[in-house]
Amino acid sequence: TSFWSNVQKGPEDPILGVSIAFNKDTSPSKINLGVGAYRDENGKPYVLECVKKADKKIFEAGVDHEYAPIVGLASFNSLSVALALGEDCKAIKDKKIAVIQTLSGTGALRVAAEFLARFYPGKTAYVPNPTWGNHNTIFADSGVAVKSYAYYNPQNCGLNFDGMYNDINAAPNGSIILLHACAHNPTGVDPSIAQWKKISQLCKDKQHFVLFDFAYQGFASGSPEKDAEPVRLFVADGHQIGLCQSFAKNFGLYGQRIGAFSLITGTPEEALAVESQLKILVRPMYSNPPIFGARVVSTILSNKELTEQWRTEVKGMADRIIGMRESLVKYLKQHGSTKDWSHITNQIGMFCYTGLTPEQVDRLASEFHIYLTRNGRISIAGINSKNVEYLAKAIHAVTK
Ligand code: PMP
């Protein structure tokens, strides 16, 4: 007998299932709208020019491959926080922020959850309903209880602000509130700035700990500053936020696993103490983070020209996505759909909650070779000018 005969096969990731079905399909008109990674006009992965230039600089500098410190590359850490909070952020100047390089956004969330489990015990984390599926499992696996707050309103494919507000208000004082800073995944629905202000005030009144998941800075609106507005607003309001950054989408560095976790503390001494405890948490998990992605981001953000190029390129990705949303709605109308599709253009970021039912999703796959998750979420990155009209016709066919 084997040691592992009692191990049962677990369920496949639902998003992976979409790609498996897509790969099996031999139709030339097939479309994969499940992928969570940016694709260019030709449906291909996109390597940013600024990243290629940074690669070259790093290579030419003849760097070694020694270990990074446990907290990661110092230059990356400070550039990363400055990108999110702004260079003139008072908490940065006052040295009140503990930062640690992480294994992309997932790693940042995991380190955050492990830290909260150890130093903010017995609290429940509230995540939006729905949210990126990994949020629930990251907290649960770290020993932090998870509940959800209302978020999405299926009636208008928009925000259920009252529900969100009431649920955050009903959570016990001092709870952990996870907020998507921009381009909410999976819905593409973000609060307005006026609504963010109300949420900030509410979290203040309730003494909640706010943890921002910031996986799409610049990728949503095309402006890194505009996308950072909610986070900066909370910091300006005096919240000691936790911040999880990912450079997967906005720098196209998915597989390099580059991200950061920061925590705003009360004093420079507190920041050092928190940093020391983050190191103690990280050491037995993975010792220290991978170095290449940190070097790439650091090379770009410490060089004016490369930073400008990055801004242009991240705006290019965001604009292509915004353009595809408009194009999809245009073709839906052109082919006779009289439904209200305004949510497609109102939502933001890579993902769109179309409002399609599971049955309509099944028909898109079986009749039109179009693949997406059964919750009706489409990745706009999978759309391009060659397939958008075909997609619109198919969506119209299954929704009329
Ligand atoms: N948070 C959200 C909301 C995401 O959509 C993603 C990417 N799918 C992540 C975090 C983290 O991704 P990564 O670990 O690749 O940075």
TrEMBL record:
Aminotransferase class I/classII large domain location = 29-395
Co-factor requirement: pyridoxal 5'-phosphate
**UniProt catalytic activity:** L-aspartate + 2-oxoglutarate = oxaloacetate + L-glutamate
Protein origin, superkingdom: Eukaryota
| MF terms in GO | L-aspartate:2-oxoglutarate aminotransferase activity; pyridoxal phosphate binding
Q: Any idea which UniProt keywords this protein has?
A: Aminotransferase, Pyridoxal phosphate, Transferase
Q: Which CDD domains match?
A: AAT_like
Q: Which InterPro entries match?
A: Aminotransferase_I/II_large (IPR004839), Asp_trans (IPR000796), NHTrfase_class1_PyrdxlP-BS (IPR004838), PyrdxlP-dep_Trfase (IPR015424), PyrdxlP-dep_Trfase_major (IPR015421), PyrdxlP-dep_Trfase_small (IPR015422)
Recorded GO cellular component terms are: mitochondrion
Q: Coiled coil: which residue ranges?
A: none
GO BP field: amino acid metabolic process
Which SUPFAM superfamilies does the UniProt record give? PLP-dependent transferases
Instruction: Identify the EC number(s).
Output: 2.6.1.1
How does this polypeptide assemble, per the annotation?
Homodimer.
Q: Which PANTHER family match?
A: ASPARTATE AMINOTRANSFERASE, ASPARTATE AMINOTRANSFERASE, MITOCHONDRIAL
Family assignment from sequence similarity: Belongs to the class-I pyridoxal-phosphate-dependent aminotransferase family.
One further remark on this entry is:
In eukaryotes there are cytoplasmic, mitochondrial and chloroplastic isozymes.
* Protein name per its UniProtKB record: Aspartate aminotransferase
Taxon lineage: Eukaryota, Amoebozoa, Evosea, Eumycetozoa, Dictyostelia
